[in-house]
Amino acid sequence: MRNFTFLVSAFLAVVVTVFASNAGKGDDHEDNRHKHRDGCLTTHEAEKLKDLWVSLFEKIYDGGAVARNSLTDDFKLYTESTSTATPNRTVPIDAPYYDSKEAFVKFTSSPPSLEYDVIAWDHGCHTFTVRWRLHFQPTGIAGIDLVFVKKGSYLLEKAYSEWNNALYLAEIGQLCK
User: Fold this and answer.
1) What pTM was estimated for this model as a whole?
2) By the 8 A CB rule, do 163 and 143 touch?
């Protein structure tokens, strides 16, 4: 009986150790604010950041928590496509559409429910590029984003996003086909 009790206790100790060491792993939206990296992004790291970036535009209802944990305070998003497609909002061509993390968080706190497909992607040392398609009836919309990752960290610091806004404007009746 003693041996059985010892074996059960040992087994439970191993199980608890394994679960404790894996706690929090696999969380796709972990807090990146205090993580440090050396050198260039690996393909695995860039893929996780690409997935995180896409998720900021899909069904996020967390009050901006993911964006707050993933962007630098001075994050900027440049997009002439969005600027020209947004009624009553014009931004100079060289100015960011969102000029801070908090401005971007206001947008991602209550975005529409959108579905994106990643068509292609690649990465550099401190950047990644995503070619995407948005499911928008009847034809869909495609675009490309270039995202910069702050050196030494996993925080996104700026992005350039362009998409076929003329097709979008035609689909919603704001532009003749």
Assistant:
1) 0.74
2) yes
**What is the identity of the amino acid at 68?**
R
Q: What whole-number distance in Å separates Cα of residue 73 and Cα of residue 151?
A: 14
Q: Which residue has the tokens 């998720």?
A: 55
Residues 22-57 have pLDDT tens digits of 333 334 445 666 677 889 999 999 999 999 999 888
> Which amino acid belongs to residue 86?
T
- The total of other beta-carbon atoms located within 10 Å of residue 131's CB is 14
Domain residue extents for the chain: 39-171
Q: 31 and 86 in contact (C-beta within 8 Å)?
A: no
Nearest-CA neighbor of 141 among 122, 119, 110, 123?
119
Q: Which CATH number fits domain 39-171: 3.90.1150.150, 3.30.70.2970, 3.10.450.50, 3.40.50.460?
A: 3.10.450.50
